[in-house]
Every structure is written in C-alpha cells, then in structure tokens.
Predict the structure of N-carbamoyl-D-amino-acid hydrolase.
Amino acid sequence: MPRRLTVAAAQLGPIQKAEGREVAVGRMVRLMEAAHRRGVEVVVFPELALTTFFPRWYEEDRAAADHWFETSLPSNATAPLFEAARKYGIGFHLGYAEKTPEGRHFNTAAYVHPSGEVVLKYRKVHLPGHAEHDPVRRVQHLEKRYFEVGDLGFPVVRAPVGGAGPVNIGMLICNDRRWPEAWRVLGLQSVELVMLGYNTPSLNMDNRGFEAHHLRVLHSHLSIQAGCYQNATFGIATAKAGVEDGHELFGHSIIVNPQGEIMAQATSWDDELITADIDLGMCRLGRETIFNFAAHRRVEAYGRITGQTGAEAPRAWEPARG
Ligand code: CDT
C-alpha cells in the first residue's frame, strides 16, 4: 500500500535583531495556514526560527545572550504555533535555542505532533564557528560560545506522521548536513524522512580565500542530495534567508527524494512555502539494493571514522631498494 504524505519546507525571510518572537511566530502561523490550504501534513521550519541568527552578535558576558533562548516549549510566544498545528492537523518541526532547567544551552530542533506533543528532540552536534571574538572575521559566528555540543546523538523515531502511518523520522541542524557521518548514523536507524533547518551566510566570513557565492548554495545542495541518496531517505531542508541587519543568508530551501533528486526548491529569499507529495515506499529501492547496509557495509575497514578526529598525514611512499 502506498505510504503517501504531503510535506512542506516553510522557508522564513529575514528576522531583524530588534524584532520580537511574536513577529516571527505570526509569519509562521500564516505559513501554516497556507500549508493547510495546500493539504500539507508536515511543515519544517528553519534552524533558530524564532529570532535573528544571533550567533553573529558577540556578548562579552555570555549570559547577556540568554534572552535569545527558550526555557519551555510551548511558551506564551510559541503557543500560536501549537494552536495552528492542532487546528489544521499539521505536525511541525521547529528549530530554537534551548536553555534547560539546569542552565545548559543547546541549538535544538523538535518535531511536534498535531496534538501538541513533542515527538522527537535533537540537539545540534556539529557547531561551526568559534567561541571567542575573532577580529579577522567581518561577521562573527559564535555558535561554539553560546551552545554546548548536543548530547542526544542522532535519534530516529518511528511515529505517526499525517496519513502515511508510522514514519521513521530524524533530524539534522544546519552544519550537520555537511557531515556524511551524521547522515549515516540516521541511515543506520532506517530513517525515511530527515528534517533539517539552516541559517547559512551567503559569504564565507573566514576571509581565508574566496569562496564564490554560487558555490555556497552548491555545497549545501550537494550535501543534502548526497545524504538523501546514500541513506535512501527523503529530506526537507529549510532556510532562514535574506538580509538580517545587513548580513545575508541564502535561501534555496529544498525537498529531496531518496534518489537525491530535488523535488521542490524555493525561489525567493523570503517567507515561502514549498511542497511535495512523497511516497515513502521510494526509500526501499536504495536500502534493498545498492545501499543495503547489512549486505555491503565493511565496518572492519571503517575504524578511523570513530577512532580518529583530525586528519593525519599519510605514510610516505619510498621506492623499493636494490
Ligand atoms: N548555522 C550554521 O550551522 N551555519 C553554517 C555556516 C558555516 S560557514 C561554512 C553552515 O554550515 O551552514
């Protein structure tokens, strides 16, 4: 029996530093209304969807950044999203900055069932950027200052999504998409739908050489399409896009099938809903043939993947003597 689902990436345009959460949440509710009109069953919002991409702003006193974080979900500010989900019967993925009751800080994503229950939570593992103010950079990227490395691994859960019955869902957050290891850990749990939000500057701010503008988008798509293909999963990748207080983030949100094909792509750098009708049965071809892990993986040759972090120099070749 076909396991069909109508899914959406709800791309957000820019959120300025001075704008409160109610501005973003109002826009997100409008996107959920549009999703309802198009028969969507699950909506994916971006990483850190409720505020501007605040890791670009340096705070000497780390606690001065705490106002960007959520201490509960739902909260007064996010309640309208939960109400819209219930009203329209739509599940949603939300990226947000999480401060736990113990005072720990994470870059987090949650998948919320239309009933309002949090089905799955993920905390970002690959934190890009730096922890201290970097005078060389034109714009700071202080994720390593404001967040701890996620402590939940890469979980996948089998849970009801829309009319498709149970679906194996997993999540990645922004920079995670560039790491094949992260995708593979999801693939090893038979993931069928990866939800992924991102905030990616259009320019590489490291200033260590020029990276062409269009290549930034290529690298994002390349990573997502490869991750989907190599792990036989659908992916919904949603940007926060546009110019936030003079700093540009690219859009180009995409929905990708298990063959690595782009099914839908955003064309603006603003609030935009893109949708696709997916058949989860499509995941079977890859996982039963070329990416049948049980039949073809060779873990005895992969020791370096978990045993080593940085790259080592290779053994130097020497010509045979005599
Ligand atoms: N938010 C986030 O993780 N952004 C990073 C920017 C890194 S610059 C290469 C990303 O990987 O998109």
